[in-house]
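Appendix B. One record, verbatim.
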Amino acid sequence: MMGDGFQFLDIVLFAMVAGFLVLRLRSVLGKKTGHQEPRQDAISRRQQEPETDSNVVELPDRNNEVPERNSEPSEEDPTAGLDPNDPLTAGIIQIQIADNSFQPAVFANGARSAFEMIVQAFAHGDTDTLDNLLAEDVFENFNDAIDKREAAGQSLETTIIGIKSANVIEARMDGQNAMVTVKFVSEQVNVTHDAENRVVDGDPNQVTEITDIWTFSRDTKTSNPNWRLVETRSQN
């Protein structure tokens, strides 16, 4: 009888584990309707993936209390060191009210991936990838630059040595659109070759530190989780 009891307990435990796995799969994969969801961009994928890095500091539960910060802003927690009345903190809270899945630390990590994808796609002339990641007017600017480069018989070789930082510096709601600006500081090697593979710009042996300020946007009123690059600018 004792053995039968243990067998029954094992069956119950296995059933509970199986049920948990089914729920987890459904939460990750979602339900399919008659319409296929758009392909997710790098940022939204990273936001849905669980963080395994214990150094990542996520925002506390969304309530009326914002803890005081004493340290400087960091990649892990872009709101670190900010006063609760600071415009960045206020903007993040506004976005979280509209989209309770928004986490600045996770977003910043995903923005790194998007940055690398966009930079490499531009260098390779990969307009399909750019079209999925850029707003229409930004895509037109990138595409025009690619067309001019190809018309001149030139090619661009870009190597990202590393991204030194990717910090959220602005956040706000523009109507129903969440707008998040990230400051990227990266080390790159950029070399332009002509049709005969001669270097016409850049130095293959020179690493340059480049600062880019990019703004990403997402419509919080739609089920589309994708963020798109809507503005690029350099540091003043």
